[in-house]
Amino acid sequence: MVTRREWLRVALGGAAATMATGMLTIPAFAAVPIAITVYKSPTCGCCTKWIDHLRASGFEVTANDMDDLSEVKATFGVPAELESCHTATVGKYVVEGHVPADLIQKMLKEQPAIAGLAVPGMPMGSPGMEGGRKDAYDVIAFDRKGTRSVYAKR
Fold first, then answer.
1. Residue 9: domain span
2. Residue 14 has what pLDDT?
3. d(CA 79, CA 142)
4. Cβ atoms 34, 60 nearer than 8 A
5. 84 and 113 inside one domain
6. Are residue 71 and residue 100 in the same domain, yes or no?
7. Less CB within 10 Å around the terminal CB: N or C of the chain?
């Protein structure tokens, strides 16, 4: 016969149930994939590598290949000075360029009052741009009013 505790553990995917206190410990939020939509050129190798980086970090990626991203960038309010080779949306935020997955997760956890994050250009050593050297770069937070600040240095 299956006990209530065993049934709860199976039903909750391995979560521990403590019947004496009536409390349940549920697996961490990180186990749930975070949906992100990426708009990219069909021929861009570094965009594909960035998507691989996101997937390896637990994101559920939907990739949309497009020949011209200018309308996407304008629609999502990406400032021209912050543009890169791909644009993504996650939750209520825009992610432009080679932003590291851990910083996207941090933004989603903290929920800052910004439109999104950007890594302008294509700095060597950023996710998807790995190679022979690693350049220092800034991850920029931006809002719809034009305010920008350094969110992180890498």
1. 1-27
2. 41
3. 8
4. yes
5. yes
6. yes
7. N
- Does residue 8 sit in the same domain as residue 79? no
Cβ neighbours around 111 below 10 Å, total: 10
Give the phi and the psi of residue 56 in degrees, each rounded to 5. Answer: -65, -20
Number of domains in the chain: 2
Residues 6+ apart with CB under 8 A from 43: none
- pLDDT tens per residue, range 72-110: 999 999 999 999 999 999 999 999 999 999 999 999 999
Report the C-alpha dihedral over residues 63, 148, 75, 30, rounded to 10 degrees. 30
Here the tokens at position 3 are 């006990």
My answer on whether 45 and 20 are in the same domain is no
The CATH number of residue 90's host domain is 3.40.30.10
Rounded percentage of the chain residues whose pLDDT exceeds 70: 80
- Give pTM, 2 decimals: 0.78
- The two structure tokens encoding residue 13: 């995917």
Q: What is the mean pLDDT of the chain?
A: 85
Kind plus residue range of the DSSP H or E element containing 72: helix 70-75
How big is the chain, counted in residues? Answer: 154
pLDDT of residue 125: 95
